[in-house]
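quick one, 117 residues, struct below
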Amino acid sequence: QVQLVESGGGLVQAGGSLRLSCAASGTILGFNTMAWYRQAPGKQRELVARFIRSPLTYQYVDSVKGRFTISRDISKNTLYLQMNSLKLEDTAVYYCNAHPYAGYEYWGQGTQVTVSS
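---
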């Protein structure tokens, strides 16, 4: 089993930045995909950013392109989401997701991001 723990959320003013972390309980080197999702109040959970190991691919929802960057630090077993130029609409609970290999999926508990004016 894989444990995923998000951190780094908090309250930030519009235009500010946050970096979210997703720490895995073991190596993430061979994980097929890792991703960040978010769910705002009254909204469906949406894919924000995704890393695909092979072929190497980075994907972003249109609303965050140019502002958010997904990355991973294999040595720290950690996935990151750097969020810049935050907007009010970015307010949501952000969840880490991983597919270590086909047929297996894991989720973290989420971390709250609140963007204020």
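The chain is about 0% helix and 50% strand.
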